[in-house]
Structure formats: structure tokens, C-alpha cells
Amino acid sequence: MATTSAATPPLLRRVNAGKLLGVLSTAGVMTGTGLIEATGLTRATVHAVCNDLIAMGWVLEHDPGHDAPGTPVGRPSRRFEFNSQAGYVLGIDVGAAKTTVLLSDLRGETVAKSGRSFQSVKTPAEQTEVVNQAVLEALASAGVTDAEVLSAGVGVAAPVDREGNILVDDEFWRRFDAGLTSKLSELHGWPVLLENDANLAALGERWRGEAQEVDDLVVLLAGERFGSGLMDSGRLLHGSRGGAGEMVYLKLVDGVGDTAGIARTAREQGAKAVADPSVRTSLRSLAAAAPVTAEMVFAAAADGDKVALGILQHVAARTARVVATLGILFNPELVVIGGAVAAAAKSLLPAIDDQLATFTSTPPRLAVSSLGDTIVSIGAVRHALNYVEQHALDLQLATRSG
């Protein structure tokens, strides 16, 4: 079979279309000259590929604009814009307790959000149905059909390899190996892309959060269980089987001992204090009508409760050791604490920061995520958009009426 080192015309066309879409998807209206400067392509190539993308529905052409004052008079510049309404993507977070779904346009702007609890779920089939109902709710609220969805990213709290397979060596991880992605694809017809939740959180933070422009990054999901998404030189790390960033090793770390996250540790320490009648704490009155929560511990500490303050000192010391291990092993520029606990964890940053320097000579910068409980879903949207940009020429766009 004959081979050639030169790129074939179809491959060149795909590469050039990808370049143009990559520029247009993050910009406003651009002239042909602007696209030439941004991509390095020739004028003939830019116009030919834009014509293809216009015909496919990816790009809109506006009325010709006028050149800037002082430039030679000639034919008005063609003006192009990415068609962000050409389709939609879904970002789905399948957590241990609930699912959160974001529906976004092709610029990543959220057009609908929904969520469902897994409280009464007992089987994988029931979990899939709950996720599907949340998806249907998001689609219905925006008036979007299955045909208009181009891809869906899904995050789970388990290691996922580069081919989208879950590592099932741990009993907790096996709970997420329920055929969810194949079932959603079967029901709706769009590609469903599985990824680890912390990896998606890293994608989300670098795209829309505290880590924009940061290439060496760790996002530490710190709610019920510690988990980390690792990014080196702007590239996600997976490991041979998807286990990069998993934190079972914390069982071996002195002063940590397990993977329990900030919320779980605060809650369990608070419940222990309340259960001891000899301990005087305002947590007892806060928990009079409901079990102790991490939020109660943070609230009591903010009001000066000594027991709650002691619990948070313990949490900060433990978290500092966790962050230090990440700093030593991966030497990131920034560690972002994310998940539902992030807002409350902001009060812990000074204490964590003070202790980091005692554990490592290269302590990373610390921040807390501003993305809240959508951190994984936002990363899942970015994951889905990456797929769309890479496969744009293979995707069939639905035509919207009206």
C-alpha cells in the first residue's frame, strides 16, 4: 500500500476548518483579514473553508463591513461569526448523592439547568432513569430537541481511562459502572463522553474558574471524599488506567489516614462533639432538629464556638497535608479547592497556607472555586464542546425553525 508523508486534501480541510472554528468560537464577528492573521492561513483558504462552514451551518456571514480609516479603498471585507445556536451540548455530573445537568449553547453559555437526587435510588437502572429525567427536564425547559444536541459530557466519581472505561477495582468506583453512557446514547442518539469528575472540574476551572491561563493545575474536590484532577502543561493526566489523581494513597499519609473530605470530616467531628454530653458547644442547639452538617460547624465557628473552631483547625491541618502531598508529587502552580464545600472552605485558606510551607519547599498557590456545585457540570460542558470542535465536519446540524 502506497504511503505519503504529505497531508491529503481531506485532512488539510479538516485541520483548517478546526483552526477557523477554534478562533471563531471564542471571538465575535471577524473579518477574513482577522482570520488570516489569527490562523496563518492564506486568504484563499480562509474564504474557501468559511464557505464550507457557512454551507454546513457552523458559521454565519454578515453584511460586508467597511475597512478602517486610512486603508486603501477596495472591496468591503467579508465578516464571519461562529453560529453558537447551531446546536447544544450537555454537561452531566453524576455524583454519589445527586445529578446536576447543564444544557449549553456552542459558546458554553448555560441555557438550562436541572438536578435530581439519588436518595431513593437502589439499582443502576434507577440511577440511569433519574439522570435521564434530569436531562429531559433541561431539554424541555429550553425547548431543545435530541436532534439539536451534538454531544454530552458525563462526570463520575471514579477513575476513567482515555477510552472512557471505568476502573472498577474499588467497590465505590463499581457503583458508577452501570452502563449509563450507552443507555443515554441509545435513548437519545448523541455521543456520550464519560470522564472522571475531578478531571472535568480541572477542565471547568481552567475554562471558566480561578485557573484561567494556568497550565500546571490541581483541582481538589474536597466534599465527601478527596479527589484530584491533574493538569500538566495544559493537558489532563489520566495514567495507564485512568487512576492519576486518585487519592487512596492518603490512607498511608500521617495525619490524614483516609480519603474523607472536608465536609465529611467536619460533619463527623461535629456529630461526635454533640453526642458527648460533657462537651459544651452551640452545635447542640443548631442540631436540635436535624443531624449535624458541615455547614453547621462552619456557622458555629464563625460565631466563635470554641469546639467548632477546634474542629476546623483539625480540618485545616489535615487538608494542608493533603495539599502538600499534591505539591510535592506534581508541583502545580495552583491548587483549587472545589465542590459544594468550596465557599465555606475559603475561611480555612490562611491556616492551610501557613502550614504548607512547613511540609514542602515548593508550596502551590491556593484558591477556592467560584463555580459551586456546577464545577463538574461546567467541565463536562467543556469536554463536550472539545468533542464538537474536533468532530465538527462529521456532525449533522439540525435546522431550527422560526
From TrEMBL:
Pfam families referenced in this protein's UniProt entry, alphabetically: ROK
InterPro entries with a match to the protein in the record: ATPase_NBD, ROK, WH-like_DNA-bd_sf, WH_DNA-bd_sf
Domain of life according to the entry: Bacteria
Cross-referenced PANTHER family: BIFUNCTIONAL UDP-N-ACETYLGLUCOSAMINE 2-EPIMERASE_N-ACETYLMANNOSAMINE KINASE, ROK (REPRESSOR, ORF, KINASE) FAMILY
Protein family per UniProt: Belongs to the ROK (NagC/XylR) family.
Protein name: ROK family transcriptional regulator
UniProt organism field: Kribbella sancticallisti
